[in-house]
């Protein structure tokens, strides 16, 4: 490839940069054939009947033609009247501090719910969203964890929270997103099974309330409602989606850009005030400083952002999210070696591979920006091997292969990917790589 091609490939890396700083109070291509509709009745089934239902769904899912896929790059406008959308809402609080919506750009969103005694309660919350927003999106049961958009786990403790004296959080959501439109690509919800210090189990009704709240974040609500009658209020206190909750999510997923723009014209002041108020109200809660740091970062105040992150570290010195956030500050300031240092510290405090993949990718990005492709290749490869369904990770890996003249390796990666997602061969970049490798 000539220099112009190489320059274009580097631009591709930047263009598809995966932003993984999931503000914690913030792709699957195979959707099962039936949504989580009226799955409220699931709780009344015996274990054998539940298993038969899953086996049937799995069998039907495997019969779906794999070349029929959602268009991941298009956001269609929902056919609803403006009168339905012009309701009281808190969209200013839901968007990010750049004024952008963070949302799924497809209507079929797959969910994997891990085994726990609260599984049926979680299904009930999913069903509530399905019946409320059926025009806008639908949650489907994923056939497995790997091929899912949203993962929901019930855990004994949060890996990101090592401070036993911090304010209690019942749930936490980490989102990953990419593209200039910041569309969501993956979300991980964790629900705490016991209250800290007391070791008291949370009830089904508490789990239901928490899942309703965290699903709002998984759908792209970045901040919180200022009204304590809403599910998306900072402290989960209600167990029913309010009219404001419903109006906000409908507007987010309506595709009505003119109305969205009108409703978010004063977003910057709103987001900064929300984050500052939250930090003042919860100074012993690391996530409050992380959120404030994120807002400062988005407003271009990187030194203020680093100061907020350092306060968060004083509370939770082993929280990988904080190190990732600091690394992002240094990355955007072109201080790649310092960014690598903090990404590596984040890796030291992460236990699961699925959380490591985006960080490996970002370390690869740091090296690629410095034209150190021998190093970049190692990290891009690790990221792709962990998440081989991720198209963006594949492309970054291919760029490194091109730079290092690893032709056979590039072709092998493309062939492996196309066996699952044949449409990859329609992309010009992949066509160019194949032509180069020949």
Q: Based on DSSP secondary structure assignment, what is the total number of beta strands?
A: 7
Largest sheet data: 5 strands, mixed
CATH superfamily of the domain at 31-63 and 75-265: Collagenase (Catalytic Domain)
**Helix content range of the residues, please?**
40-55%
Q: What sort of overall outline do the alpha carbons produce when their principal axes are compared?
A: globular
Q: Report the order of strands and helices.
A: HHHHEHEEEEEEHHHHHHHHHHHHH
Top CATH class of the domain at 31-63 and 75-265: Alpha Beta
State the separation between the terminal residues, measured CA to CA.
Answer: 12 Å
**Share in β-strands:** 5-15%
Radius of gyration over all CA atoms, rounded: 22 Å
CATH topology annotation of the domain at 31-63 and 75-265:
Collagenase (Catalytic Domain)
User: Taking strands numbered 1, 2, ... along the chain, how are they ordered across the largest sheet?
Assistant: 2-1-3-5-4
Number of helices: 18
Q: Which CATH architecture of the domain at 31-63 and 75-265 would you pick?
A: 3-Layer(aba) Sandwich
User: Helix/strand/pairing class, anyone?
Assistant: alpha/beta
């Amino acid at each position: 490839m000539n220099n112009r091609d190489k320059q274009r490939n580097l631009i591709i890396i930047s263009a598809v940069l995966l932003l993984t700083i999931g503000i914690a109070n913030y792709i699957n291509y195979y959707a099962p054939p039936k949504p989580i509709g009226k799955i409220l009745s699931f709780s009344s089934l015996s274990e054998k009947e539940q298993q038969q239902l899953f086996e049937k769904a799995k069998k039907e899912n495997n019969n779906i033609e794999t070349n029929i896929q959602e268009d991941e790059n298009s956001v269609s406008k929902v056919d609803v009247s403006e009168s339905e959308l012009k309701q009281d809402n808190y969209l200013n609080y839901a968007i990010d501090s750049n004024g952008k919506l963070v949302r799924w750009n497809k209507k079929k969103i797959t969910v994997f719910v891990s085994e726990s005694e609260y599984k049926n309660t979680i299904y009930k919350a999913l069903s509530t969203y399905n019946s409320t927003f059926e025009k806008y999106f639908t949650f489907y049961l994923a056939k497995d964890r790997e091929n899912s958009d949203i993962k929901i786990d019930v855990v004994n403790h949060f890996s990101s929270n090592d401070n036993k004296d911090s304010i209690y959080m019942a749930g936490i959501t980490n989102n990953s997103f990419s593209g200039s439109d910041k569309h969501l690509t993956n979300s991980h919800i964790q629900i705490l099974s016991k209250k800290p210090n007391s070791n008291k189990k949370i009830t089904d009704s508490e789990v239901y309330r928490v899942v309703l709240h965290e699903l709002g974040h998984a759908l792209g609500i970045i901040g919180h409602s200022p009204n304590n009658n809403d599910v998306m209020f900072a402290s989960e206190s209600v167990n029913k989606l309010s009219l404001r909750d419903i109006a906000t999510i409908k507007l987010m997923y309506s595709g009505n850009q003119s109305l969205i723009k009108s409703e978010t014209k004063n977003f910057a002041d709103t987001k900064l005030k929300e984050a500052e108020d939250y930090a003042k109200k919860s100074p012993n809660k690391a996530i409050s400083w992380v959120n404030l740091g994120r807002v400062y970062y988005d407003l271009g105040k990187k030194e203020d952002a680093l100061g907020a992150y350092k306060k968060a570290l004083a509370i939770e010195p082993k929280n990988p999210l904080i190190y990732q956030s600091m690394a992002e500050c240094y990355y955007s300031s072109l201080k790649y070696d310092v960014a690598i240092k903090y990404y590596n510290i984040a890796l030291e405090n992460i236990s699961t591979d699925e959380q490591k993949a985006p960080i490996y990718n970002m370390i690869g990005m740091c090296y690629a920006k410095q034209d150190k492709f021998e190093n970049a290749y190692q990290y891009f490869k690790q990221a792709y091997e962990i998440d081989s369904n991720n198209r963006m990770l594949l492309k970054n890996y291919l760029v490194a292969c091109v730079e290092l003249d690893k032709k056979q390796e590039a072709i092998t990666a493309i062939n492996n990917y196309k066996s699952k997602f044949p449409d990859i061969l329609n992309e010009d970049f992949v066509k160019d790589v194949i032509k180069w490798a020949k």
